[in-house]
Automatic annotation (TrEMBL):
Record SUPFAM superfamilies: Prokaryotic lipoproteins and lipoprotein localization factors
Name assigned to this protein: Outer membrane lipoprotein-sorting protein
Family annotation (InterPro entries): LolA/LolB/LppX, Sporulation_related
Endpoints of the signal sequence: 1-19
Originating organism: Alicyclobacillus macrosporangiidus
Amino acid sequence: MRRVSGMLVAVGLAAGLAAGCGAPSRDAMNAKLQTQQEKLSASNYQSTAKMTVQMENGSQTYYIETDYDSPEVYKIALGDANKNINQIIVRNGSGMFVVSPTLQKVFRFNGNWAQNQGHIYLYDQILHQLSTSPDVKVSKKGDVYTFTMPITPENDIVAKQQVDLSVNTLEPKKVVLYDKENKAVVTIEFTSFQTGVKYQQADFDPQKLASSGAVKTTTVQDSQFTFVEPQEILGDKQDLSDQLSATDWLLRYTGPYDFTLEEWRPDPGVAGVPGGKLVDLFGVPAVLAGSGNAQRLMWIHNGVQFSLTSDKLSLDQMKEVAISTFGQVGK
């Protein structure tokens, strides 16, 4: 359940690890990472971190708490700067889930998100990337090893990744994602890391996690539900803002890229998303579903559920539109 192939480490590093000034030799680094993965395969861990996401209209700060029991059992709690948990990504024997404790909402979907996008939160995936990327470069400064590598596959949001590990323990210290102009888009600073944590099965139960938070009550002011406009509309123009109900708005944008954005107050319960896969909006998990060219991206932010639908937008473009709604105030 927790086996990690040492052969992958050897092959990946021998093929692509370039040592910088002050860094150990290729064989020495190979041995260090191989030993660390062997230790991790026989243990579990908990980490906490602060994540800062840079946007055109400022920045957002998130709290991240990761509980990892095995590659098949883990959870990633995402909260605000005050450590109020808003959503939890859960993997267990029954599948993948996104849980919103304050809304008592659970999304269930398929897919192995950790191998595809979860590497910036999960230490085992950080080690896996360092061992298998064909273009890793490493340098040493003081008590930190710094690894850099291009993002694969390429996308329009981030182009390069930097990982800092402790020289003495190889524990994670920092992960930074850069755009094509070499500007930091996402910075994760680890604040704690410990192994040998005692977990219970209930710790990874999405239903129990959904009922663990304080349920948000709707006030008179909250009931006057208004919509949030995305800042990034890719040259389109809004030609419709229709209030479908007291807590549901539909926005339509037309132009080079046609898309609709629906926003509403979600009801408690479990929602299955057949064929859906988890997409990371850097601090806010989203679920992508659809068939053919028509795709739908769904996420929850500040107690509002969003659904972005288009048959022209690429996934990267959908992510740009979605992220541009963060920090916006409803109209």
